[in-house]
Write a structure and sequence with these properties.
The protein is mainly β. It is built from no helices and eleven strands. It is globular, with a radius of gyration of 13 Å.
């Protein structure tokens, strides 16, 4: 059974930091494109960051470059998102995603991030 379980969200002041974690099970983690998406109220879900463990390739949305860092721990089947210099516009539900062309995609349940003073 495939599972993606996010944690680490919460309320933080502007300029603060949070670290999101996505612990996975039920699939071969290293073969998947692992991504973080977010969806703010009234907006479409957008890609924030993506990592491909077996190639080392990493991509970021322009809006988070230089502030967010995605990483993966293959031994723990975990993907992390370190978020620094948070802004109110980063407020959203953050989702973990796993995808391959062959198997399709899986989603976590999401974790709320709120940036507010």
């Amino acid at each position: 059974q495939v599972q993606l379980v996010e944690s680490g969200g919460g309320l933080v002041q502007p300029g603060g930091s949070l670290r999101l974690s996505c612990v996975t099970s039920g699939f071969t983690f290293s073969r998947y494109y692992m991504s973080w998406y977010r969806q703010a109220p009234g907006k479409e879900r957008e890609l924030v960051a993506q990592i491909v463990s077996y190639t080392g390739r990493i991509n970021y949305a322009d809006s988070v470059k230089g502030r967010f860092t995605i990483s993966s721990d293959i031994a723990k089947n975990t993907v992390l998102l370190q978020m620094n210099s948070l802004k109110p516009e980063d407020t959203a539900v953050y989702y973990c995603n796993a995808w391959t062309r062959l198997s399709g995609e899986y989603w976590g349940q999401g974790t709320q991030v709120t940036v507010s003073s």
